[in-house]
Amino acid sequence: MVSLTLLNALAVCAGLANAQTTTLQAESATLSGVTVATAVAGYSGTGYIEGFDTSTDAIKFTVNAITSQLYDLKIIYNGPYGDKYTSVVLNGAGGSQVSLPATTAWTTVPAGQVLPNAGSNTIEIQNNWGWYLIDAITLSPSAKRGPHQITTTPVNPKANTGAKTLLKYLGSIYGKNILSGQQDQASLDWVTTNVGKTPAILGSDLMDYTESRISRGASSTDVDKAIAFAAKGGIIAFCWHWGAPVGLYDNSSQPWYSGFYTAATDFNISTALADTSNANYTLLIKDIDTIALQLKKLESAGVPVLFRPLHEAEGGWFWWGAQGPEPAKKLYRILFDRLTNHHGINNLVWMWNSVAASWYPGNDVVDIVSADTYSQGDHGPISATYNNLLALTNDTKIIAAAEIGSVMDPAQLQAYQADWVYFCVWSGDFISGGSWNSLDLLKSVYSSDYVLTLDEIQGWKNRT
């Protein structure tokens, strides 16, 4: 194992102006299922670590800290096998999922923060979505974070009172509390029954309102359920698992109801957006117009909506992200223009849901930035993703954890200054199965003063 003393106490005593940065070489750490290699030039130290091809592969560093304080963690890696993810685990629990974009050069990527205890600690780099090379990690004391510089002025200049009030309310609690959220009415009801508290946000889906799904028997009452929940004082969030309007394989391995996945359709977003006269472009507009009817129903009922279209685009597993960032951003702007300017829908708070800067459609069409993260067993603050979103807009937009698998520990959220404005746990086994979130943990999270529930946000429209 590698052991070092973090010089935070010395820095305080000496009044050092510059942060101390310590580099830990991966080849000197404790290795599990991985090996030291030297074939790829440009590494530091005496080698780097390769492997990360099985779920148990990991490298572990031992760090001795004089006092407990936040440290910025960075990973020096090489990613010749495409976009990947790794997981950082501090002292065997919590941590961060870290994106490792494809690269053939040795690259340094921010990996969030760690808060070591005074004394001995372990920092483990665990395989997540594997096949990458790790050279080293660095630790440096985190700079004190100043007040947020967010805007609560909607990007739609004609946003109605509901949308304006919702965005302003989120801004008023940002950094002070986190709103609890749950995807799907049935799962939200499970939380109410079993946890004893009702989430403040109901997550819903516009998936089953478009022609390619309705024509095959799909139907939905999500809009009606959203209106009913809003009448109870709750906040509504909608995503859209947009089934490709045409080109579904609809076979035994890729059934029609998987039609939002890249693997389930030959629909090509780049060619569809090549010009406005082709049939596939027309079908896209038809779907948008169909969804507009549902959004207008919500607007007529006085329900503002946290609207998160084209989610997880940068992952590429959905057809709207399969051809890279430019078509996805173009489609998002078409969607924004069509709903806002053509249909005059003004009850939407517009959310973007990818982290990479190359995918960002622009501050002029995004009210809130967000991410979806699924890391089983990790109830940490997801600080790496939060910090990347913070940098994405230079701290000018509110940040949300729009989908999560594992709930975050409120104490860690506060300690790490990971000021997610809300979380929304995905439905089914993610919330009720016990393997992603134990009932005891859920009760603990929902009882925290930091976590706001439905009963605690009553009258939120008058609290800004």
Characterize the structure shown.
The longest helix is centred in the middle third of the chain and has 22 residues, at 279-300. Helix 5 runs parallel beside helix 7 (279-300). The protein is an alpha/beta fold and 464 residues long. It folds into two domains: 5-141, Jelly Rolls (Sandwich), CATH 2.60.120; 161-462, TIM Barrel (Alpha-Beta Barrel), CATH 3.20.20. Helices cover 25% and strands 26% of the residues. The chain has an eight-stranded parallel beta sheet with strand order 14-15-16-17-18-19-20-21. Strands 1, 3, 6, 8, 9 and 11 form a six-stranded mixed beta sheet that branches. The chain has a four-stranded antiparallel beta sheet with strand order 2-12-7-10. Helix 3 (185-195) links the parallel strand 14 and strand 15. Residues 1-18 have low confidence and may be disordered.
Radius of gyration equals 23 Å
The name of the CATH superfamily of the largest domain reads: Glycosidases
What would you say the CATH architecture of the largest domain is? Alpha-Beta Barrel
β-strand amount: 25-35%
Q: What is the CATH class of the largest domain?
A: Alpha Beta
What is the rounded distance between the termini?
52 Å
> How many separate domains?
2
Low-confidence stretches: 1-18
Judging from the principal axes of the Cα atoms, what is the shape? Answer: globular
Q: What percentage of residues falls in helices of 4 or more residues?
A: 25-40%
Averaged pLDDT, please? 93
Structural class: alpha/beta
CATH topology of the largest domain, anyone?
A: TIM Barrel
Q: Got a strand count? A: 22
The number of distinct helices, counting runs of at least 4 residues, comes to: 12
- Major β-sheet strand ordering: 14-15-16-17-18-19-20-21
Protein name: Glycoside hydrolase family 26 protein
Domain Rhodanese: 314-329
InterPro entries: CBM6, Galactose-bd-like_sf, GH, GH26_dom, Glyco_hydro_26, Rhodanese-like_dom
Family: Belongs to the glycosyl hydrolase 26 family.
